[in-house]
Amino acid sequence: MRSSNPVFSRRGFSRDNGYAGFNAQPQAGGPVAGNPYAEGATNPYATNPYATAETQAPAPGTVMTIDDVVSRTAMTLGTVVVTAVLSWFLLPVDSDSIGKSYGIAIGAALVAMVLALVQAFKSKPVPALILGYAAFEGVFLGVISSAVSTYIADGVVAQAVLGTMAVFAGVLIAYKKRWIRVNRRFAGFVGAAAMGFVLLMAVNLLFAVFGGGDGLGFRSGALGIVFGLIGVILGACFLALDFKQVEDGLTYGAPREESWLAAFGLTLTLVWIYLEMLRLLSILQGDD
Asked: Which residues, 6+ apart, have CB-to-CB distance to 173 below 8 Å?
């Protein structure tokens, strides 16, 4: 399954309906027993960048487990939360310090973006890059959240966090119940929708920077609410693709290092959902 998450963009469908990934052998239970999407399918991990000349399959004890994914995701998200809380208190957004705080936040966001792109184009996960991204992203989120809470709507940050958790839980339940059918058509639709969404937001930002005001109005008023909802829905779709990628890795015995990519992908998606939720709730409360 090709995920729309940039972390997984190098591990997608190949021409034979397989995947570009790892040549690990299926674990106990096999692909048919462990993966309802794999009936008649080939192993989705075709080439193993971790393999040595002696073997193409990971040695016993080196395959990814759900504990690996959970622990590394907790570590990555924990870094985001800790740096966000610290930046909230250490980078005030009062009238005397708001310019400096905004400057640091924008710089941190740019560094986080660069680190994320570097990791996305790496053939192997680099924990230092992933945790570095999490730290700088947390600085950005802390300042932005503090500003929104101070100047737009007090309490909206807690609501956005709860909303993000609700989306995560809802998608996880829907995925486990197989209410969401994650296949190639689903991935293609989500990828196309995400590209169109990002392009529209980029155009809106350009109009806002050079024309002033709210640009084309995609981030305010009724249109802002519509696009906020679309952003949250896209985030939920990203989560489903991330869950599918993790499931395939567990089913086919992906190398243990891949748990870092799973954690990175989930963190990126949850940050996306939180920002869209924060923006949506800010518009709704700002119009009250």
From this structure: none
